[in-house]
Write a structure and sequence with these properties.
The structure is a homohexamer of 188-residue chains.
Chain A: E1 3-9, H1 14-29, E2 40-46, E3 51-53, H2 67-79, H3 83-87, E4 90-97, E5 103-104, H4 107-114, E6 120-132, E7 138-149, E8 155-168, E9 171-179, H5 181-187
Parallel strand pairs in A: 1-2, 4-9
Antiparallel strand pairs in A: 4-5, 6-7, 7-8, 8-9
Chain lengths: 188, 188, 188, 188, 188, 188
């Protein structure tokens, strides 16, 4: 049965409302085992002059970008070595952690670190999971397998990976990477 | 401003309502950059005789367990080698994937696999993230560091890990594990 | 999708709320071709001190009886010739119209009229239909077949009938009767 | 006091909303003896991108025709012997029952049956009552008096009738007719 | 927390809605000591064909003028001796009471009464307070200080005053005036 | 038509809800000229575990006292010279202004000031008006006539007065008094 009603200031587009409709449905389903068909979401948009908080009208804040899309865009830019495009998606204090590294704050550091490890690497995605933290950050996990070439030119593929991203104010502020590269090499 | 109203059949306890209140707040915040203080959730419980779908009354389904709590309970049981308690939390078709393994379906397989790798291992948690998939499964990620003893008795600690769990109908049906054990060994 | 919410003063019982839930569902379905499963009714009961009209609290009016039940009770009393019980269900100005009669206002008139026509008659119901008029009256139609004995003692059965009742303030104020008795006799 | 709120997908016209407003008011009045003035109906139209069931947007189904209007149109067509126009309003499995007939499925059968009974007949309406069944069918009763000419050319009038119609998916699927023609002839 | 929702027929402008938003916020705050920031007002405008009372559509009544603005306009007209403009704002039965006068019903009476008392007088406003009575009248109090010239041409200023106005149907029907003129003269 | 819905945390008593019902009705009527009978207020009380702001439950704040009652209690205490009881109703920074006085902060000052002016004074109330300011203060005006005895023992009566009170956090913080005492003496 659950019925969710969202009252929100006018100004969100169809895609943003779809994301709200899906996220609210999912939020209910994490607690209530209702079939999706039995969960209704209604979004009630309020015009600015129909809404008052503290006797004052408010402006709607622009929607945050879809965090999964943001991560996908970033990963594609990195895969193509479009470093400037990738940097544009990073927020202040961005830090990344790869297997065996400490925190790296510059994409150039990563490239340098990767150079002796593989000629190139491509991600095949198995899925994305997104969640909102208690704080301001959204979290995105993407997982799948890596393929590419070792420094000696031999190919590899099917190596499991998972990346975790924290996104604040529409920018990536943290990336954590785990994968089976070392395990694969150890078994080789 | 966003105000969320949830209409749901009576029968959920304070803790389950708190989970709903938090999940609905978080769902909104993934799209709308409102301060938490500006997001209100109201839960309207409906008595059974006040709600009709298709001219019929409905029974509320019991709440699903908190997936993070479920995972935490499972991981603690495994750490203490309480295999039966852990098994009770697994659903049909449970499969787990560890670095370098294919899918394993029995906890005993895991113990056998782990035996030559470490004497024991403990998890220190840095955080849990939970999300609902489009389907019936909830997903929980837990991450942190591993400590324990290698087979030769030397201690290790601070090895990053992340586990991903899929939970359906209140049971764990899949576990994926990534960590830096191989990387650590390779660097040693 | 349609979702109906009814706000009503506290004081109606489960059966009365079920009747409201069904009537509201049916009202929607007369216009919107939604599957019953897709129509939700929520009844929100208001306590007396939570509701103000014109700055004043109000008392809930006792529910009207189910008009179909009322008619059924009346017809059963008549069939058993429990005239006083039947009379107790009639309102001021009660008038009834049978095939070939003008308006009759007393049940005794009816008995007198029927005496030369049949020894007794029983109704087998095929169905009831109830509707609310624009005015205060509810209308109930009941239809089915008549069986009984003619004055000469021969049996009859399967004669179609339909009765229409108007009910105001929980009392029957008009009855119109149509049936195929004359047609049956003419064909005999 | 009762206040009814209907949430429905955008796409219904003023006349359809008026029918909903009236039907919902009437539904409440069949149970709660409130003065009409005290019953409020609010229709909240939802845009398609503001409504989600099972994470999906829905299309509004076109409104069903007003069943009383449909019946009136059918009866007028029949009175004018516009058989094709009348047929267009009939649904699959249409069956009609007149006094003394079994079920007839073709309008031509009816004309044949009526031919020896009257030259023509006209209906003067006293009222229509419409109700929704538990199933998909709406039911319409229309009642009044018949006038016309007997086969010998003599006129008749003032003969009571009632017709019951079942309408499914906007088409008439059943007609039941009762009247006092036989009674009138018997008394003549 | 308090959240106020107002459902009202479409037809009120932004300024009228702002007045509603403020008045509803203030109404809550007179009872509930919530910070203004914690009080939300949502105005839901209903189109005419989405609202039914007693099965009928209704027309929205034009908004009443802001009573404080009305009083301010009246007082300014009086100060400038624009008697006709002031009269246009008075309703039937208008009566005014000044210190030591009985009820006066014509503005000319007031001018005559004032003539021997001061050459002219100006109001400096410290504030307006408006309230709705249980009946149809709104009440406005305005207070501040008077300055002007005595009949002998000497100036005065800083004399406290308060005026109370009753406004019905957008017209002033009563004015009560208190001030310290007599006290000031007595002390002089 | 206007319908007001108030959602508020559970914890307010029947009298406090009546005050809310009246104040919300009055707030609407100051803008919309609807008959009181056409204005509905519904109060929806939320249990603490059904309401979340910023992911957190909230406690309802105790209701503010009825400001008119507070003023009436204060004025009665003053009339009976129950100074301590009156003081208990005053807030920090309390200041009062009487005709010809500057601001007085102690009730004893007032008594001293009054001593040479009248032996005693009683208030006959004609009415109270209450309003909420934009800020935290409620404002109450009470008006009527004064009666009592002059210092020489002669009686007076029928002298108009109006008092304005500001109340913050349930305590009186300011009193402004106007009356016709000086005018009356001047005319004597």
């Amino acid at each position: 049965m659950p019925i969710v009603e969202l009252h929100v200031l006018e100004g969100y587009g169809p895609d943003e409302k779809r994301r709200l409709g899906e996220a609210l449905t999912d939020a209910v389903r994490m607690v209530v085992p209702a079939a999706p068909e039995a969960i209704t979401v209604m979004i009630h948009e309020m015009q600015e002059d129909d809404y008052y908080r503290g006797r004052s009208r408010r402006k709607p804040a622009p929607a945050l970008p879809d965090p999964c899309e943001l991560v996908r865009t970033y990963l594609e830019a990195m895969e193509r070595r479009q470093i400037e495009a990738a940097k544009a998606l990073l927020g202040d204090g961005f830090t990344m952690y790869f297997p065996g590294t400490g925190g790296m704050t510059k994409l150039e550091e990563l490239l340098e670190w990767a150079a002796p490890r593989y000629r190139f690497v491509k991600k095949t995605y198995e899925g994305f999971d997104a969640a909102q933290t208690e704080g301001d950050a959204s979290v995105v996990y993407c997982r799948g397998t890596l393929s590419g070439e070792w420094p000696d030119g031999t190919a590899f593929s099917g190596i499991r990976f998972v990346d975790r991203f924290e996104i604040t104010d529409g920018r990536i502020v943290r990336q954590d990477v785990w994968n089976d590269i070392a395990e694969t090499k150890a078994q080789a």
